[in-house]
Amino acid sequence: MSAVEPPNPGHSAPGAERPTAPRFSVVIPLYNKRAHIGRAVASVLGQGVRDLELVVVDDGSTDGGGDVVAAIDDPRLRLLRQPNQGVSAARNRGIAETTGPHIALLDADDEWAPGFLGEIDALVGEFPQAIIHATAYRLAAGGHSRPMSNWKAMGGGPEHRLIDYLDCLARDVFPFSASSVCVGRVAFERAGGFEPGLAVGDDVLMWIRLAQQGMVAWSNAELSFYHRDAENRALEHPLRLERELDFLVHLVAHCRGDWHDSAAVPALRRFVSSKIAGTAARLLRGDDPARARQFLDCNRDLLLYRHALRLQARLLRHGIARRLASRTRADTDRGGRR
């Protein structure tokens, strides 16, 4: 393993012969996951597919996690260190420092089964036109794991298939995670990279941008493990709601700029509307009706009538329902059935 500190390591000098790019570039962003990073790295280096490079970006860890990586001896592994800038910046940095045509991502507290990259390689061969290649995944905790249940809503079908990711989101189905996905480098660069500053949802926003370029090739083989009991997970952060609100601001801004894409509009609008309704419900449960009212007023043109109706009981208790429902119904009458 080589530890690299400068911002642009590994770039060849002018006139120098460049090494052949590996087939897969794997990037792991690392922030204070000392207890788990060794497992994640071992799961990558133990893949049956050997033609890979692995870059771990230590994003200002204070627990010595980077030192765990530095002690691992494998020529395919590089460690980059930088001041803390967030997971999006760490992923972007790692991707920029790699060269392979296929970029696979893994979180520092998750892991791959030994055949994960082999399955991705098979998907790439079968569906070279796909923008994303991904597998199903399992939720792990306490030494046990179980299937991620909501992708079962996709119904039966071949083990390998092309899926419409936006349609999945609209049905509240998340068929893959940020640790079970591989993206083509060209498509990633067209999408503009992960959104810096977002603490949650940066991956979903990226998958949306990529899915607007084309289809997802997906395998129902559960070859990635999402560890729910890992330390310092974003889902358990005390500012989780604030971070989700920030994600929604970025999501709404992206969607308002993309409504011209008629093929993606219906599914994307259903997903956005459900997120707006769910966030408003959480604000109401937190006894913050004023903020819920302001949030709904700002986004009511994106709230579908069906989602407004589901909120009605809570809204009635806070005196918001009549105004919101009437406005949403009026929007429906002007814009067609929603």
Question: Would you write up a description of this structure?
Answer:
Helix content is 41%, strand content 19%. By secondary structure, it is α/β, with parallel strands linked by helices. Helix 8 (240-256) packs antiparallel against helix 9 and helix 9 runs antiparallel to helix 10 (289-299). The protein is globular. The relative contact order is 0.11.
Gist?
By secondary structure, the chain is an alpha/beta fold.
Topology:
Layout: E1 2-4, E2 24-30, H1 34-45, E3 52-59, H2 65-70, E4 77-82, H3 87-96, E5 102-105, E6 111-112, H4 116-126, E7 132-141, E8 144-147, E9 160-163, H5 165-170, E10 181-184, H6 185-191, H7 202-211, E11 216-227, H8 240-256, H9 265-285, H10 289-299, H11 305-310, H12 312-317, H13 321-335
Parallel strand pairs: 1-4, 2-3, 2-5, 3-4, 7-11
Antiparallel strand pairs: 5-10, 6-11, 7-8, 7-10, 9-11
Helix pairs in contact: 8-9, 9-10
CATH class of the largest domain: Alpha Beta
Helix/strand order, N-terminal first:
EEHEHEHEEHEEEHEHHEHHHHHH
| Beta-strand segment tally | 11
The shape is globular
The biggest sheet, with number of strands, parallel, antiparallel or mixed sense and barrel status, is: 11 strands, mixed
Task: Name the CATH superfamily classification of the largest domain.
Answer: Spore Coat Polysaccharide Biosynthesis Protein SpsA, Chain A
